[in-house]
Give the backbone structure.
Amino acid sequence: MKVLITGGAGFLGQRLARELLNRGQLKGPNGQPESISELVLLDVVAATGFEHEARVRVEVGDIAERATLERVIDTQTHTIFHLAAVVSGQAEADFELGMRINLDASRLLLETCRTLGHQPRVVFTSSVAVYGGTLPAVVQDDTALNPQSSYGMQKAVAELLLNDYARRGFVDGRVLRLPTISVRPGKPNAAASSFASGIIREPLNGVTAVCPVAGSTRLWLLSPRKAIACLIAGCEIDAAALGIQRVVNLPGLSVSVDEMIAALREVAGEAVAARIEWQADARVEKIVGSWPGQWDTSRAQQLGLVGDRSFAEVIRSYIEDERISVS
Ligand SMILES: NC(=O)c1ccc[n+]([C@@H]2O[C@H](COP(=O)([O-])OP(=O)(O)OC[C@H]3O[C@@H](n4cnc5c(N)ncnc54)[C@H](O)[C@@H]3O)[C@@H](O)[C@H]2O)c1
């Protein structure tokens, strides 16, 4: 089986590639495991670290160009993980770029598949940014979409496109709405949710972190490990089990910032947890405060998607993955 990851040099794309190579197989259209013969990693920058992996083909190109998609998708490409995107802050700052990459390119990818006519499995990573405005106390998969950002709108339109291409039988599509991924290694980024990793990552690395929201603020989180496991499990769900509703909210953890810090104290001790300073940021509070706090994940669980058991477990998996020593 040939597998394509768009955004293959990104944070989740790289991790997904490694996990797929470790597994070596994915369920094919008939529900039986098939060996991965080729894994194509498409991105505007070259994915690195796969030089000695014979199954990997690194492709550098712009996903918004038809010729790029025609180069990386053919009738043997049975599985596509469509991760390429510009993130929320960038899509808000540059409307045209967000439209081109998050929306136009998604449609072009679906059109390329429709034209080839081989009905590949397409896994699309959406976001909780599709929700907004007045929300019910508990958000369901089919709660009305009301995005409050251009990024959220672009993801919402791409979701609808994918659902309809699946209904028409052009692709076997799956939309997985990702919670905020925490703990994300590396440096802080421009996302409003960046602190959701920073307040854990920085103290564990001996650095003081600034928390811009109140301790009572609730977040919806999933660890990188479980996010990758859910992308693969989501890809392997039997199409009949999904039915016509191709969109699933992944099973995140609903935790308050205070609970996150208590988990950090439990795992790493008081001295580490004390490396957090509080400095309210009205802009971040407004954005993060508009996100839903409680979710019904029963459908995800019925479909076999498994999240983290506790935020302490999330921190422990970060420490293990990044080989951090906690004395
Ligand atoms: N990480 C999160 O917290 C989170 C939460 C919700 C949804 N998502 C979604 O998950 C997906 C992956 O997220 P991530 O955290 O790995 O992001 P990322 O920014 O690390 O990866 C996205 C990749 O897309 C690539 N890309 C951008 N424009 C491109 C183009 N024109 N052609 C080809 N590639 C292009 C980028 O170079 C980047 O490597 C995205 O669709 C994102 O919207 C992520």
Remarks:
- The first helix runs from residue 11 to 23.
